[in-house]
Amino acid sequence: MQLPDLGQAEIVLHTEDPEGHDRGPGGDAYPTDAVFEPQVFDLCAFSVAADARSLVFTFEPYGPLTSPWGSPNGLALQTLDVYVDTYPGRSTGARTLLPGRNAALAEGCGWKAAVWAEGWTPQDLRPDEQGTPIQDSQVSLKVIRDVAGQRISLRVPRQAFGEGDPSQWAYAAILLSQDGFPAPGVWRVRDVEADASQWRIGGGPADINHTRILDIAWPEAAEVTQQQMLANYTPAAEAVDTLAPGMFPQLLMLRP
After folding, report:
1. CB 237 within 8 A of CB 207
2. Which residues contact 163 (CB under 8 A, 6 or more apart)?
3. Which of 31, 95, 132, 226 is most exposed, with the fewest beta carbons within 10 Å of its own?
4. What is the rounded distance in angstroms from the CA atom of residue 142 to the CA atom of residue 147?
């Protein structure tokens, strides 16, 4: 596979995502400002590629790759997360996703490394013993926006994931809306409220633990659908940071 500035890499996972699944659990509506063009949060395909030095995660949205606020790397509207389980099925690692995503990996899964890509604060993270995400300052994450090819590639050094074979790992890839002025405790992703407004997504229920995820890399032929995953949780009213992983929507992971 040839990608701009990335040389040769071998694809270890590729999945097509159905068009029109950028509505989270099914009822989310885009903010009303004109910068949120149709399908900018609608994922078309996701892939994982590897070479001797790096892993490359590529997101291909159906909509245009615009940068209305001029971020340093050209990624302004979307937030892209990738969660990697390097020991799938062993119930190790963290299940709860990064703060504000309001989702968790299904039982038996756990992320050992996470890639958080957006225009201003892209990071590689790993969980501490309590599951709290900690930035790995030794890892240099590179975000490459290919406007002509309509794709965003994230190049991450292999050292971020430890030893092992990427073709034996499990992956979860999600797409959210980046927000420079997030709610307290939320890591820079946009809120989902009851009604859409200029800067808020609409369609949210009256609880505090509904997800802010708009799309998941997930094949249409899968037995469990994206809507089923994101809508299946127990509504809560207490502080979200006190909730166990089982109180959030449960995400299954992709395997090569």
Report:
1. yes
2. none
3. 132
4. 16
Q: Under the phi-then-psi rule, with left for phi > 0, alpha for psi from -120 to 50, and beta for the rest, what region is 104? A: beta
Whether residue 175 lies inside any domain: the answer is yes
Count: domains in the chain: 1
- In a domain, residue 153? The reply is no
9-49: per-residue pLDDT in tens? 899 999 999 999 999 999 999 999 999 999 999 999 999 99
| Range of the structural domain that residue 121 is part of | 14-39+67-136+164-251
- Whether residue 127 contacts residue 112, with contact meaning beta carbons closer than 8 Å, is answered with yes
Other CB atoms closer than 10 Å to residue 2's CB: what's the count?
A: 7
Q: Which residue has the tokens 């799938």?
A: 88
Q: Cα(148)–Cα(166) distance, rounded to whole angstroms?
A: 28
- 52 is a domain residue: no
Nearest alpha carbon to residue 12 among 46, 60, 59, 47: 47
The total of other beta-carbon atoms located within 10 Å of residue 144's CB is 18
d(CA 240, CA 167): 34
Any idea what the CATH number is for the domain that residue 230 is in?
2.60.40.1190
If you average pLDDT over residues 96-116, what whole number do you get?
97
- What pLDDT, in 10s, does the model give residues 69-105? 999 999 999 999 999 999 998 989 999 999 999 999 9
